[in-house]
Amino acid sequence: MSWLVTGGAGYIGSHVVKALLDAGTDPVVVDDLSSGHREFVPDGVPFVETNLLDTDTVTATLKEHDVTGVIHLAGYKYAGESVKRPLHTYTQNVTAMVHLLEAMAATGVDKIVFSSSAATFGTPDVDLVTEDTPTAPESPYGESKLIGERLLADVATAGAVAGNVDEAGAPVPVLRHTSLRYFNVVGSGSPDLYDTSPHNLFPLVIDALRAGRTPRINGTDYATPDGTCVRDYVHVADLAVSHVAAARALEAGTPLQPVYNLGSGDGVSVRQIMDAMARVTGIDFTPEIAPRRPGDPARIVATGEAAARDLDWVMRHSLDDMVASAWEARQAHPS
After folding, report:
1. Catalytic positions, please?
2. What residue ranges define each of the domains in the chain, with the CATH number in brackets?
3. Order of strands, sheet of 259-261, starting from the edge strand that comes earlier in the sequence
4. With bands split at pLDDT 50, 70 and 90, how would you rate the model's confidence at 201?
């Protein structure tokens, strides 16, 4: 028996694969390599290069590898870019998820951990976001993640309806699921794995320093202690551990909430990140100051108390640890 990791050749997905292996669970990876990297998948781990829109291939993969559950990370994950590409975003994040759920239903796979996003909250008017904070996404990306959560709830409800059967007359199994919401995932759990996103803050800063350019801060006049935006920044290895804990809980039949926030509880400012980058790398620099970006809220920080209780969620890494591991992994890949 094994667990399928969609997007398992990506930055977060590859860390989840590593965490599954460390926990003694066999992973199977499906990834179309649109943003993932084949070399991120360890030798010996089954890998299928396909998009989730290819229902037949995904169904065959679930059958061939006796998959019992899915950790679903595949998708188009850029909130700002999703505003420019709404149709692409909804196709990759919503339509593809429908196809995945169809493949799961066809093969009797009834457990799924969904990689959602704190983008579902939009710009909350509270200092600390909880699972009960109202959702109000402000981008197609955030909307697509919220729709994904609702899809899971609706499919689970359908399975719970007495007498509900599929086209062949077989009972529809009750889907067991949970969704994990988080913001900025950083750092590295292995020198072989690193963030290659062209939009995320850590790789942008690190690549600028490696190229001899000066990193930039967008806006220093926010209502925060140092004037820069405050966000949750969580280490990717810590995040991966909680994905595996969620999978194991579903497998054991342990009751879980439908949604968990993987938050730091206090947040880090962009200025603090720049200071940590200079301190850890030994490269002294003064960030360039650019205007605010439209739609950037001053502060979004979530509590992780429920996840700490149920999903082994712990902030095991300091900000300097996050920077040091990201820097080391990127330095190991000069190209």
Report:
1. 141
2. 2-184+234-261 (3.40.50.720), 186-233+264-302+311-331 (3.90.25.10)
3. 47-49, 26-31, 2-6, 67-72, 111-115, 176-181, 259-261
4. very high
